[in-house]
Amino acid sequence: MAFGITSTTLLILLGATPVSASAAVHFAEIGTTLASGLSHWREGNVDKRVIWRLGIPGAVGAFIGATVLSQISLTGARVWMSALLIVLGLILLLRFGLGATLIPVISSRPKTNLLVPLGGFAGFVDASGGGGWGPITTPTLLTLTKTAPRRVIGTVSASEFMVALAASAGF
User: pTM for the full model?
Assistant: First the structure.
């Protein structure tokens, strides 16, 4: 988790532009997410109904995010994305570390009205910020559903293949 954010940050520190860094990371993720997705699928860690409802909007969001990043500079997005990830981390810590319920938990299988906006938003942030698919979707689904963590991680990992393909096409 956080391969995109870490790799993009390191590439930018080494002098790459945000566009080239994000494009390189997403192109590299095509192979890694395919292997990860197939492994999770084989082990039964993928919810086949959720993967499409999360991955297709994620791919659309990633394509739009990559296209936007290619056209304009989003340097202010770094601060916004960092704040978002800190908030998600705190929510996870409170929920699983302290047992606090901040947000009411929904059913074990997330509905389309949660997955479509989550996928679109996470895909856009992932492509325009250089990463964030896993750190946004995984904690959100772990926090808002009763789905087993292995199924959440497997489904998010498998659906990231669609996001990486779409982001690469957008660049």
Answer: 0.82
Number of other residues whose CB lies within 10 A of the CB of residue 122: 28
Rounded to 10 deg, the angle between the 112-129 and 77-92 helix axes is 130
Cβ neighbours of residue 168 closer than 8 Å, sequence gap 6 or more? 23, 26, 27, 30, 66
**Integer Cα distance of 5 and 63 in angstroms:** 17
pLDDT per residue rounded down to tens, the chain (171 residues): 568 877 887 887 888 877 888 889 999 999 999 999 999 999 999 999 999 999 999 999 999 988 887 777 556 655 665 666 577 667 767 877 887 776 667 766 788 888 999 999 999 988 887 778 988 899 889 888 888 999 999 999 999 999 999 999 998
Quick one: 66 exposed, middle or buried, by C-beta within 10 A (0-12, 13-18, 19+)? buried
